[in-house]
From TrEMBL:
The lineage of its organism: Bacteria, Bacillati, Actinomycetota, Actinomycetes, Kitasatosporales. The keyword Amino-acid biosynthesis does not apply. It comes from Streptomyces zaomyceticus. Ferredoxins are iron-sulfur proteins that transfer electrons in a wide variety of metabolic reactions. Residues 1-29 form the 4Fe-4S ferredoxin-type domain. Its cofactor is [3Fe-4S] cluster. Keywords: 3Fe-4S, Electron transport, Iron, Iron-sulfur, Metal-binding, Transport. The keyword Iron applies. This is Ferredoxin. Pfam families: Fer4_15 (PF13459).
Amino acid sequence: MRISLDTDVCIGAGQCALLSPDVFTQDDDGFGTVVPGHPDEPEGPLVREAARACPVGAITLAEP
């Protein structure tokens, strides 16, 4: 699964890091980022939930 997080759209709500901390984290300014080398599975369902929970739709998921 390809995961993208649009940092220009992110407002730093933190839902992604809360729901899927192995894949998402927050930078020093509190905005979401994708963890380099993140595991694709078994976190798939949590990643999908994090994308749905993002209040501004900053997370995009694409199947390979």
